[in-house]
Amino acid sequence: MKVILHDLQGPYAALIQAKCDRVIEADGKYAPCQGCFGCWTKHPAECFMKDALQQVCRIIGQADELVVVTKNLYGGYSADVKNVLDRSIGTSTPFSTYRGRQMHHTLRYGKHALWKVIVYGEITEAEKATFRYLAERNAINDGFERSEVTFLESLSELEGSL
Fold it and tell me: What are the backbone angles phi and psi of residue 37, rounded to the nearest 5°?
């Protein structure tokens, strides 16, 4: 299953919907993570907050391919995308294991294929390096076999990147 998480507005919705199985809109119309860890322990992979992101752990956890479309924010995800990723901590368990000779949380849904990040907006070379490292570490931590980062000069290039 291909899942696209994005922070885009307006005319891009139809394009994105046609390119994937599930869409997660990082539109800011939800509460940020409260850090209660209920999605880890009390209600595995389900947030206690009754909003659009209540099932986000299950959606991301079942994705073979996760594509994150985000505006650059100093070499990191936009605030709205980061909030969605924070709310998806329940894709793993509170238990630990070694992956790649490093300690990580045990995956609730197993391995995935691709963590892909598509970045738009102004970006420096240093921010590009930071984004590549961030995507690589996120992929490892969430059990994705590989990561990919694409930088767009303009959003008109988006269709070819999805």
Answer: 65, 15
Instruction: Residue 98: give its domain's CATH number.
Output: 3.40.50.360
Structure tokens at 44: 């595995």
What is the structure's pLDDT at 13? 81
pLDDT at res. 14:
81
Other CB atoms within 10 A of residue 39 CB: 25
Mean pLDDT of 102-114: 93
Tell whether the model's pLDDT for residue 99 goes beyond 90. Answer: no
24-29 CB contacts, 8 Å cutoff, 24+ apart: 24/53, 24/56, 24/59, 24/60, 24/84, 25/52, 26/70, 26/78, 26/80, 26/81, 26/83, 26/84, 27/80, 28/79, 28/80, 28/83
* pLDDT score of 139 more than 90: yes
Number of domains in the chain: 1
